[in-house]
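Input sequence (673 aa), recorded before submission:
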Amino acid sequence: MKKSIKNRLRKKEKVRFYKKTGNLTRKKRMYFMIVMVFITMFGLCTRIFWIQFVMGEKLKKMAYIQHTMERAFNPCRGTIYDATGKKILAVSGSVESVTVNPVNIKKEDKERLARKLSDLFELDYEKTLKKVSKRSSIETIVTKIDKEKSNELRKWLLDNDITTGVNIDVDTKRFYPYNTMASQIIGFCGSDNQGLMGIESKYDEELKGKKGSIVKLTDAKGGNLDKEGEDYIEAQNGNDLILTIDATIQGITEKYLKEACIDNVCTDGGNIIIMNPQNGEILAMAGYPDYNLNSPYVPITEEANSWDNLSKEEKIKIQQNMWRNKAISDSYEPGSTFKLITASAALEEGITDTDNSGEFNCGGGITVGGVRIKCWRYYRPHGTESLREALMNSCNPVFISLGQRLGVSIYYSYLEKFGLLQKTGIDLQGEGGSIFLSENKVGPVELATISFGQRFEITPIQMITAVATIANGGNYIKPKVVKKIVNSVNGEVKEIKTDIRKRAISEETSKKVLSMMESVVAEGTGKNAQVKGYSIGGKTGTSEDGVNTGKYVTSFVGVAPIENPQVVILITLYNPTGEGGHQGGGVAAPIASQVLGEVLPYLQVSKNKSEEENKKVVVPDIVGLKMQEAKKVLSDVNLNIDLPENSDENSIINEQIPIPGIEVFEGSNIIVK
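Predicted structure, token format:
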């Protein structure tokens, strides 16, 4: 009995316990479910917020892209004109491109369409069929085709009742009317109309314009929606460029450079630059060998005969060489042409003058730091000389002594003033720089070799810019090849202004150096550069192309006319191996005569006298005379006087350049103090 009572009590306790614990479990479950619902709702709200407000714009664009088909087409690149604004050097012509929308082409039409496209445009049939059969919205078949072929395709599509899935759109193609002219300056474009070399690359942003497009709504599969039309967005053409390059002068320059490189067997080619020293404009920049801009990947020289047999590496090497504008990218030892810089620095510092008779002595060489440095005419020394005579004779010992008098610090300050320690900043792609020892590493021997133009390297554009500084009265001017940019939308013209950087030497020093340069051509090593009727100044140069290579660089730098310089010319020939040798006076100077003989008349530069009357006269002694008396004396022998500032008729002449007894051409200027 007692047992049964106890058992009943235990059962009741268990029931109460289970009821109590069951209620607790249900509450926990309810709380858990509420929390889970809250978390789920919070997550969904967060996701909706993220999709709507954070990803909304991106997803909208993605949806637009998914439901539209866009066919882009190129604008016309800007036209490139020569300096006259009349001759076109580069222009974009109208061509067409073909694309397909595979999803809009009927299955039964795919094979015959692929066959026609491959036959008409000379394409691989299997690759074309693969494009036509793809499950994509658009595939490019061919670009830049002539209208004759696109019209043939239009007729075939019409005859075969294929009305959808094939698009023929307007495109542009770059043409170069003069083929090889200024090829290394202008450069060329790739298949996507982007500039790859030269001006085409440097001014790509100005020339390329903005692409146009044709936009059409499509269904989920990429098929056309018949009720929707096409949205046409017009392309914006690129801006036009007017260069400083004159096509006529460029043609003259290229003609004589090619002849010179072939006649003198210049194994590494050559280049000629012609610059207007008054504003830095490059009138011509020719390089040889060059290439055809309309087919820039195949050479036009003798390599073309074996082109198909060359390896890929050999082809790339040849292409890089013919595309390379060595006039701005490659450095060389300038040789004796650099003596003009040493002479300018010495005159500016007042450590010498042009016509101090017997000031220097050439004994065939000079010993510097225990090293004997020879004059080029060591076997028959020049003897006593003035600075003018030393420049005429291109005498190394004289310029070594000038370098010693200047010292490293002052000499390097003039290298900086003449822009020889940095790039010129010319608006062309791939400009190289000079190679000089650091100033603190230059010893006596190094200074000596620099003084006459060896054991350092500069680029041709640096050299001609430095000489242009002498020619224009002493101002360093940044060179340029683009003169104007013409906006294609509103026709607004942007002038590229002359950039005068700094003054390197005084006007007086400039006149003295020009006078000596005239003597170099009249009586010195540059005689072969003479042009009848014009006063030409210049300096020849010959240097080694590297140490112990057995190669030489031959050059000539000239200024014309001396009384009012309009052009500076630099001729650089790399390793001439012909019978004419490798001396600047014998190889490079005659080319200057040929080029200037045509360029100066073209530029309508007035002659001093007619060819028959043009002759040399001896400079009379006018020191001690009054200005009005000196004018009369010089007039009697057909010479002019270069009047200093603030002078009057009663001023007494204390100094004259050239000194009495020097022979000059009639019409030359005599500088007086």
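Checked by second reader. The first strand starts at residue 68 and ends at 73.
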